[in-house]
Amino acid sequence: MAVTELAEVSVAYYLGEVVAMSGIPIVGLILLIVGLRQRSHARQLPPPGYPPAGPFPYGPLPSAPVDTGYAYQPGPPVPATPPPYYPDTNPAPRPVTRGTALIVVGSLMLAFGLLGILGRAADLVPQHRDAPPALKVGQCVAQSSVRANNMAPAPQDCDAPDSTLEVASTGGGSAACPDGKLKDSQYAVLFDKSTTLCFLLNLKQGQCYSLSGTPGNPIFTQAACDGSVQVIQVVKRIDGDYDRSLCPEGTKPVFYLKPARLYCLQPLKN
């Protein structure tokens, strides 16, 4: 009786997130470059009110006497008197720095975008994902939590009615179950790229269970043995041995190598 449930963690999913998040720092970098270029251009402009470059506005000052053709040679002409200078009592307003908003927004987007990418990329590092499984051998879980593809199902009391699975072994992503198999194993298997969890059935002797799911992946649910529904009764449970000859005639043996356990099951019809 094979009870198998697989949970695959897709590396492509993490890569897709990293690629999608890379757009944020790219936009931030573009804004930062545009802001820096605007600020650099603003610094090259002359301050407001500065006179434009050019020839002296009041004409050239001659450096030698001018020959007018008369005996009397007048002296050099007196240059025009510039208008009086009156200082401006109102200082020019300080120019607004261009590109500051773009620089600030771009820097923030670049910083937070890179931090997000580094955080998601860390999930792809095997050393980060190869954390030891939270479950330990001998702990029990509800079969519904394993079917939810949760790599860390919560342990619970093995005597609970829905604790139909017990941890048989734990290992890395390439580990096999105690029977040397991963697929088509007698154990229920939950695994991803870094963790493998193998479970064996935890059924109570004398108790009845209804079956659902598929023949290769049945789900055991505790039920009454009053014949109201079709159930499987655990006629015998033997811990520490897996010799199928120990089961009574007419029952179906289900056994596990490690830990050694044998179940003798009998269907009851309503």
Number of strands: 9
Give the CA-CA distance, first to last residue: 23 Å
Give the strand content. 15-25%
N-to-C SSE series?
Answer: HHHHEHEEEEEEEE
Explain this structure to me?
There is one protein chain. It contains five helices and nine strands; from the N terminus they run H-H-H-H-E-H-E-E-E-E-E-E-E-E. The protein is an alpha+beta fold. The chain has three domains: 9-53 and 97-129; 132-201, no CATH class; 203-270, no CATH class. It has a five-stranded antiparallel sheet, with no helix packed on it. Strands 1-2-4-3 form a four-stranded antiparallel sheet. It is rod-shaped.
Keywords:
5-stranded antiparallel β-sheet; rod-shaped; 5 helices; single chain; 270 residues; 3 domains; alpha+beta; disordered N terminus; 4-stranded antiparallel β-sheet
Helix and strand arrangement:
Elements: H1 11-21, H2 23-44, H3 100-121, H4 126-129, E1 140-141, H5 143-147, E2 165-171, E3 188-191, E4 196-201, E5 208-214, E6 217-223, E7 231-239, E8 252-256, E9 261-268
Antiparallel strand pairs: 1-2, 2-4, 3-4, 5-6, 5-7, 7-9, 8-9
Helix pairs in contact: 1-3, 2-3
